[in-house]
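[09:14] KT: can someone run the structure on this one? pasting the chain below
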Amino acid sequence: MRIADVKPWAAIVAVACLLAARPVPAVSGATPPRPRPAMAVASRPPAIIMLPRTQPVFTPKQIAAWIGKLSSPHAAIRRQAKRHLITVGTAAVAPLKAALAGWTTPQMRWDMRDLLGAIAEAKALRGPLVTLKLAHAPLRIILQRLCRQAGFTAQFAGTQLQWTTRRLGIHVERQPFWKVIQRMAYVTGASPCGNDFYVPAGLLNFCRHGTLARHTPVYRKGALLLAVQASSGGETATFSAPSGQRTSGGFSVGVMGLWAPGSAAVEQVGPVQFTQALDNRGRSLLASTVSQYCYQSNSHDEFSFAPRLHWPSPHATKLAVLAGEIPMALDITPRIRRVSNLDSGKATLNLHGLHVAIGKPTDVVIDPLNPRIGRCHLRVSVWATADALQSPT
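[09:31] RB: done, structure tokens below
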């Protein structure tokens, strides 16, 4: 084998081996060198490791016993069984539907349908869980595969995209999507850009220095992510500004919200109601008007709001507490039915005894940025038959 026929790094190793194989001339009085033990080169560990905690395992016998307790005449026993079945989650859906198809009392049917709705709602609010294991993979591939599991399509902003070719290892198992994205932002610096209100539905833009910086205050709750951005408004928005430079109107704090659409879609957000805002000296910064309108993107997966607050005390250095309520209308659709003849005005569906008639769409408005998305008005008529009363869904 010629050294010129191999890769450069292999050539260096070959030259080192050839030099080591050369005979060493004997020197009088010199001790022979000790042979060095061979050492194995360890593989580089993943930069991001997030493994799930040990979860309790529920057996089919336990699930069947809790479903059987729904027939108890005591309300306390039924409530306890409901709590257990909601804790079981998705594993209890199939046994509940099978029990609904069998002999049940009216109270049991009511409780089981209520449980199916509660489990679906809990799954939607929990948000998508992602699993990925790659070694020495480009950042672009890692973000694309993570977003695909959460219902997003990863997109990268800018023209200089060399940062997306950085290679690293990742090993995550059943972790919340936004928790993994936040860890990725801390390790690589890449995170959602924010304020992309004209991006089509299902796209998530990533930037080299996005919204989730290392010191950005972040709130995560299931599929929802809130990130507090830089303050704005007035001549200056820094707490360290002299009192003479502070405007009488106070300052604004920008808050960006992101929703992972993997299990539920956002129909409407807000208005936001703020209940508490404190600086690090304990002074309340709430203005007289605490209701705030939300600006939503075309896809409703991203929204933002900027509450107007009073200036803090002269010795305060940061905003310590910002609390409130964000009303959100979600569309939880575990099953999707496609209708292809809407233009005829005679489209119908039959869902376990429920007959649905859909009229012709009117007032159609197509999104100019994405022709596949539009809004319209539909006239829908629904009527039930006797079979719908015994339907498991």
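[09:33] KT: thanks! The longest helix spans residues 106-126.
[09:34] RB: yep, looked fine to me
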